[in-house]
């Protein structure tokens, strides 16, 4: 199916959006004092260049104590207007419209980023995230917050935004007032349905009074809370109809609230199916007259097209797709679907950055967040660059160096590209990880100035003979093998070999090492209907090197596969009958057919010492230290671009 309908214009109120593709609000952490920084402007400008019809900017706090993150933007002060006016002017140059999302984080605010001020909420119910008991707002304080929303909306209009989005979802302050799980007030702002809606109603009235009748107002809303006793779509139907009656011009229908453990998350990982949220939008379309924006792991042009053609929604918001490839719309419009760099749902950068309080970054798009500082102009002198290793770090290094006009030769000792990232695509639900490896391979094949040598390991002698200007060492890591008796027996295999089909296992399997690789390998084996799979970890918890949301999903998967988990346990040896396991001072025989080692990896970089006095070298990814894939891609690209 050729994508056509998604490129037709559609109106939100009096504002015509050039196409149906929306960048939803996502925390970028690029505006420490609230003003629009050069980094922030260039980050969004890249999306405007890429052809997105509407960009909704993220989490503009309505006062100095309303933030949930350390560096979100703000427009509560007129002094902040000029920088954001510069921002909107730049976005408008590309024909893209831009809405300003305004919010108060409520009990999900963090005193560490709000001047040590205690979070506030409708009731003193602690947030599951930060565990802090919030200050219960007085009526006068509520009235002041309503006024703050209005002031921020007016400032956004003055700054050139095309519309406003009121954040009434995801467990932030407005959502807290709407939710009976959070709101236990007995005054005019709590108790009955009408009272719980009052805060949002007053905000809508105040914002409308400030911005006028012809300025679009979007409301971001969670169709369901996905919590025990939380709101379901049945009650949301009435709320959505009332929000339309209040004067909303569009509904941006999301799902869930932060801090709630459920099978679906606001930022869904690879465990969640694509388009998982669209049915709620389709239901809303049956009773709403205003447009509806859907969101939730839409990645393929065909799916986006189907959503619009079938009438499930009027717009498709694609947050992480826009991070992975800001030029998704232009590529889809040109029919160049194979050129699209897809989000793989890993959460290693987009979500992790919010916890870390740093600007957003991405595994598959190492350029993200660096748009303001990376120089893509051709180098004055074309250099010869050798790259050792064709994993994702090595391929990103080669791609970046090729952009600069250098001549690159990649040396890979295996018969294929991808390195450890190949086996990373084999565990349950992770098949789409292979799309990144495939995309990189297609990219390096496009460049005539890149030569790929497979089945060839780079040596110091080769470097000394050719004398390249620079060598980038992306040789990766090797598995850690414990020094215990019997570890080289035939019944002991490596997790990577199991995932790649190089080693078979018996029906009873012990996986040693409960980090990400070991836990995923145990799930992989469990789904193969082995009679018994046991996972042992020396620490007191498994998968601690994974993002929290994915870790919870993986634990659910392990439970469904009946994988037994033993923590505080290490391997002391291997025999033909099984493994010797150590718990405390006790060592016992654990009978099993196969022992799978997933204890970890260590850097592999034999050339570093040999070449240190021979030529300029850069070491990237696991060759520096065994870490996550995101360090390999980001460091590799940076090394190539600065060659």
TrEMBL record:
Q: What is this protein called?
A: 2,4-dienoyl-CoA reductase
Keyword field contains Iron-sulfur = yes
Coiled-coil boundaries:
none
Residue stretches making up the NADH:flavin oxidoreductase/NADH oxidase N-terminal domain: 5-337
Listed cofactors: FMN; [4Fe-4S] cluster
Q: Which family does it belong to?
A: In the N-terminal section; belongs to the NADH:flavin oxidoreductase/NADH oxidase family.
One annotated GO molecular function: FMN binding
PANTHER family (alphabetical): 2,4-DIENOYL-COA REDUCTASE, 2,4-DIENOYL-COA REDUCTASE [(2E)-ENOYL-COA-PRODUCING]
* Source domain of life: Bacteria
Span of domain FAD/NAD(P)-binding: 384-610
Name of a matching Pfam family: Pyr_redox_2
Entry's InterPro entries?
Answer: Aldolase_TIM (IPR013785), FAD/NAD-bd_sf (IPR036188), FAD/NAD-binding_dom (IPR023753), NADH:flavin_oxidoreductase (IPR051793), OxRdtase_FMN_N (IPR001155)
- Keyword check for Metal-binding, yes or no: yes
Its keywords, alphabetically, are: Flavoprotein, FMN, Iron, Iron-sulfur, Metal-binding, Oxidoreductase
What parts of the sequence cross the membrane?
Answer: none
């Amino acid at each position: 199916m050729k994508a056509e309908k998604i490129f037709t214009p559609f109106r939100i109120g009096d504002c015509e959006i050039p196409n149906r593709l929306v960048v939803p609000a996502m925390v970028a952490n690029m505006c420490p004092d609230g003003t629009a920084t050069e980094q922030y402007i260039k980050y969004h400008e890249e999306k405007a260049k890429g052809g997105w019809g509407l960009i909704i900017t993220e989490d503009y706090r309505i006062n100095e104590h309303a933030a949930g993150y350390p560096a979100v933007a703000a427009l509560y002060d007129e002094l902040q207007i000029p920088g954001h006016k510069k921002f909107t002017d730049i976005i408008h140059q590309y024909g893209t419209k831009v809405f300003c999302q305004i919010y108060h984080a409520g009990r999900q605010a963090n005193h560490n980023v709000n001047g040590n001020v205690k979070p506030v909420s409708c009731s003193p119910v602690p947030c599951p995230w930060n565990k802090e008991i919030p200050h219960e707002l007085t009526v006068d304080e509520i009235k002041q917050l309503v006024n703050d929303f209005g002031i921020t909306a007016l400032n956004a209009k003055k700054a050139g935004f095309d519309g406003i989005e009121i954040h009434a979802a995801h467990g932030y302050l407005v959502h807290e007032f709407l939710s009976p799980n959070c709101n236990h007030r007995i005054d005019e702002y709590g108790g009955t349905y009408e009272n719980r809606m009052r805060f949002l109603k007053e905000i809508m009235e105040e914002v409308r009074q400030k911005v006028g009748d012809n300025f679009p107002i979007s409301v971001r809303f969670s169709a369901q809370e996905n919590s025990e006793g939380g709101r379901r779509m049945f009650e949301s139907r009435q709320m959505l109809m009332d929000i339309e009656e209040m004067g909303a011009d569009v509904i941006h229908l999301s799902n869930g609230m932060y801090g709630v453990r459920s099978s679906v998350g606001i930022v869904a990982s690879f465990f969640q199916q694509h388009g998982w949220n669209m049915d709620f939008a389709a239901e809303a379309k049956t009773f709403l007259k205003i447009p509806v924006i859907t969101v939730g792991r839409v990645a393929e042009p065909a799916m986006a097209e189907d959503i619009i053609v079938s009438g499930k929604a009027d717009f498709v918001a694609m947050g992480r797709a826009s991070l992975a490839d800001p030029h998704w719309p232009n590529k889809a419009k040109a029919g160049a679907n194979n050129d699209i760099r897809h989000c793989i749902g890993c959460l290693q950068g987009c979500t992790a950055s919010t916890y870390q309080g740093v600007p957003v970054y991405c595994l598959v798009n190492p350029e993200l967040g660096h748009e303001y500082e990376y120089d893509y102009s051709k180098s004055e002198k074309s250099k010869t660059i050798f790259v050792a290793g064709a994993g994702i770090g090595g391929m990103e290094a080669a791609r970046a160096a090729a952009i600069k006009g250098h001549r690159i030769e990649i040396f890979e000792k295996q018969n294929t590209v991808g390195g450890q990232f190949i086996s990373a695509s084999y565990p349950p639900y992770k098949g789409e990880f292979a799309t990144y490896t495939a995309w990189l391979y297609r990219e390096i094949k496009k460049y005539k100035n890149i030569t790929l040598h497979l089945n060839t390991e780079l040596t110091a002698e080769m470097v000394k003979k050719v004398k390249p200007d620079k060598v980038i060492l992306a040789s990766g890591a090797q598995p850690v093998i414990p020094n215990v008796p019997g570890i080289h027996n035939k019944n002991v295999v490596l997790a990577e070999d199991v995932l790649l089909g190089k080693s078979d296992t018996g029906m009873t399997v012990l996986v040693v090492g409960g980090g990400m690789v070991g836990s995923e390998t145990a799930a992989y084996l469990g789904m193969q209907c082995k009679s018994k799979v046991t996972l042992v970890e020396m620490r007191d918890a498994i998968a601690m090197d994974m993002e929290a949301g994915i870790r919870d999903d993986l634990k659910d998967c392990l439970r469904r596969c009946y994988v037994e988990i033993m923590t505080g346990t290490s391997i002391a040896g291997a025999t033909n009958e099984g493994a010797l396991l150590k718990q405390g001072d006790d060592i016992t025989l654990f009978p099993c057919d196969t022992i799978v080692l997933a204890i970890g990896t260590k850097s592999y970089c034999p050339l570093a010492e040999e070449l240190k006095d021979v030529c300029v070298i850069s070491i990237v990814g696991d060759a520096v230290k065994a870490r996550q894939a995101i360090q390999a891609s980001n460091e590799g690209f940076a090394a190539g671009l600065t060659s």
